């Protein structure tokens, strides 16, 4: 695959494998440049970003120079931009200092559809919308028409919008069967609002556009997974039962026994409060000093050993910040491992909501080594943890000073990748790759090579369109297209504020969704005492237990699909159009293929007893619970608790396994 330039009477074109990918004329130039004047404000990971670019000029005139394009604003003017084609990439460079804003327009077709953008929560099909690429908190509500979002905006810019995400990535796939990746960590924008052009905006004076082509989307997804790095297969323990999330101190073990006695298939106990608790107005937070808190969890080493003897793993929590009232903060200060204020030698402190933290500076090799070995290696892996939530990563301020002298504006998006690398380095050092599992919500291009498992972040505990249970499906599907094979979510959701609390209905439905995810993990949320938990009632406990058994029974199939992900790069959860390339499916984001042989349509509306399901292709689909066959098309399917709409291909090699579910909700 090569890119070629073609000079034309009124401009030029760029061809990708013979397909016109870019066209520039005097009436519609493809390149513009400017000098930026950014304004960046952050409040606890929520960012307000604006720009007032100066001297913007359209680059109308082009000439060839040793195979490159030189672009200028005037016919006889000095060139301001060089564009070089190298294989399947365009290297684009401004030629004078200070030009640090680039706009690039690619050719679009009116009926074209695009996907990607990293982990998007609101829209799988990006067509017709604009997506800024900047890792941040995703917002609470994420819908400017709602009272909750407006209230959260008033309280620290925290309401969010549809494009806010922990894991953005400047990569998109087109229904024209090509993909484009913007190889830059700068703030950028993917703008698909014009049916004639895809507009790319990059806040950097040098950028590479990488292009990929394939005869089908499956091949395209495989190429992207190769480009960014593939995750190892999930270990048997992670897919062979549910991971119960409890943060109740030593009482967590008695509660786990009750859950197991109810018949739940359990593979792990996740206690994020293993390092202690800090109570704030937001809710029950953690004490950010990453070592065992023996007051909250007495005899934890013995507890972990007892669980291991019963094939139950223990998981914890860590993030890349250190509370300034903790022991490890002082150790980091002494070692010079923290990012500094721009003036002086004082550590930069970030307000995380009623407590301040230092930023471990991963651009300092010694700090990276210290955190990977001293914190994760010794305090966690050597202590007996088999996994953990590797939280945050998206908070890097843009007004601090980093060890390597890099611009925080360019490092901000890269920070989750460095954070993932620190975790992966610790796992590798103990020879536990493919056995120990950490999961992250923050990400950016390249995180795939280090992070073995995503989780969809902090959804509201409800069914709302832009921040509820349904968003975790969109998150898994969008992230999967750009090289992330495995995703899951907090069963029950996380964020409970301003009277928004879990219902029994929500908990029942999220248990079902968790069962048909590669990892099933519950969470008590930010306000456990205000919310329903999986063990709050016999009804909820029975549902969780039944769906955990479904999850465990599917392990042989999930093992097959996980191994397939390693071999091909295909994600476990897939959009329908990945295997059935039909335009009517291009925007379907509320159901998915689980591998190629299962189709899952979770119930994501409150108090619903049925839902509409699209069955694609030209072969029959068999209902998992009744064994009845359905022809391709759209059907309204009954969905009682414990039996969400799920179908399988009767010709699947796993059909005997799937047939064993008929008549119930698990063995």
Q: Concise description?
A:
Helix content is 23%, strand content 29%. The protein has 667 residues and is an alpha+beta fold.
Ranges where pLDDT stays below 50 over 5 or more residues in a row are none
Per DSSP, the total helix count is 15
CATH homologous superfamily grouping of the largest domain: Glycosidases
Compute the number of structural domains.
3
Output the radius of gyration.
25 Å
Would you tell me which CATH topology of the largest domain applies?
Answer: TIM Barrel
CATH architecture of the largest domain: Alpha-Beta Barrel
Mean pLDDT: 97
Q: For this structure, what is the CATH class of the largest domain?
A: Alpha Beta
Shape: globular
Would you give an account of this structure?
This protein is α+β, with helices and mostly antiparallel strands. It is 23% helix and 29% strand. The mean pLDDT is 97. The protein has three domains: 3-228, Sandwich (Immunoglobulin-like), CATH 2.60.40.1760; 236-320 and 362-558, TIM Barrel, CATH 3.20.20.80; 577-659, Sandwich (Immunoglobulin-like). The strands form eleven sheets. The protein has an eight-stranded antiparallel β-sheet with strand order 8-9-10-11-19-16-15-13. The radius of gyration is 25 Å and the shape is globular. Helix 4 (251-261) links the parallel strand 20 (242-245) and strand 21. The N and C termini lie far apart (51 Å). Helix 7 crosses helix 9 (415-429) and helix 11 (504-515) packs parallel to helix 12.
